Amino acid sequence: MAPHPFAPLARRGNDATAVPAPDGRRAWLITAMIVTFMVVNYADKSVLGLAAVPIMDELELSNSTYGLISSSFFLLFSLSGLVVGFFSTRISSRTLLFGMTVLWSVAQLPVLAVASVPTLLAGRILLGAAEGPAASMSMHALYKWFPPERRALPSALQIGGAALGTLIAAPLVTWLIEGFGWRSAYAVLAAVSAAWALVWWRIGHDGPYDHTRAGDPGGGGGRLPYRRVLLSGTVLGSVSSAFGAAWALSLSHAWLPAYLRTQMHLSAEDAATTISVVSGFGLVLLLAVSPAVDALKARGVSSRWSSGAAQGIAVCVAGCAMAALPFADAGAARLVLIGLAFGTTAVAVPLHYMTVAEVVPAAQRGAVFGIVAGVGTLPGLVAPLLTGHLIDSARTPAAGYTTAFLTAAAVMVVAGVLALTAIRPERDAQRLGLTRIPPNAGH
After folding, report:
1. Hey, which of 51, 209, 355, 376 would disulfide with 218, CB 3.0 to 4.6 Å?
2. Tens digit of each residue's pLDDT (9 = 90 or more) over 207-239
């Protein structure tokens, strides 16, 4: 009989710190910390977009320059996600997440000293490098505390932290910007990131399902050539769904606040409320994903349809809403389309990690997660900058936004269709020589 998921066992983490015997309460405490980690992550990431209008006014920035600053966040984002993914096989998740959040705090400081384009660029580049591995490595850390058959809900909660981050950050950061100036938001977020790092260092030990431990009940012994794993249809399709979702997400962070202010003529408070509602919609979808996926699998539905098709369809639906957005009448119809275009893609994020995990040995999971995240988030390097150029070169800003939204829609629909057709975890697991229900299958 398999051991209880949280059977007591004591060991040492990779950071040579004794790990207490794990139990269910500690697993959920770690989950709560990682959800908070994602909240802080997205608050740090969204501050530039929320402060876009006052920053552009004060520094007299063009749309193209602002787009460049926004895209600079992703200059090292994908590369750092890939590199740290490989280091995750040697360095504990405790140390990795602590180091990331310390850098998040440091990255907010340059603009407090001197507000200029170079300091904005420096801060965003450093923040992007430190946040590149955040989603994949925090998911990897979470998987060390739950057996494969119990990962759906924790995965949804982890990604839900991203939506919750925007839901909380939009009104609070906007309140700071409007009441105390945009610099105050940077200062507060620097302090919050540092505080999280200190608490995590105290309690954030690696869990019993750490693949680096001999006899790990997640299977750490078997390894496959990375080329075979990465070229499987499931991994390529999962990367595709991540790519489509990331295009919408990068537009949401960089340009949605400005669009709401300048094109829909909302006040700063109303724009923040709209963004919070969109994030809340995404959070509700995320929390509905876990029981839906579990219910489908309990009825014998394959992972191809329960978690693979779901992410492809979500990205396609969001892409169709994005295409319709520029042609909708201002008001309720346009706000509904904004919710669908920028909120529905949240479904794809936890599911693409789950489908990838089904065709990857646990010993290589962190590295492959890093690669998938690195490639899947490349739109962040392109979409904000491209959108700025489209707005500046168009006859009117409204025409520029229309072209940008239609471009995003085309990318998202193609990405969603590719995911829908390529993701087949059962078939690929068999082709790769993994068992029918591998220990790391993510069920």
Report:
1. 209
2. 777 654 433 334 444 678 888 888 899 999 999
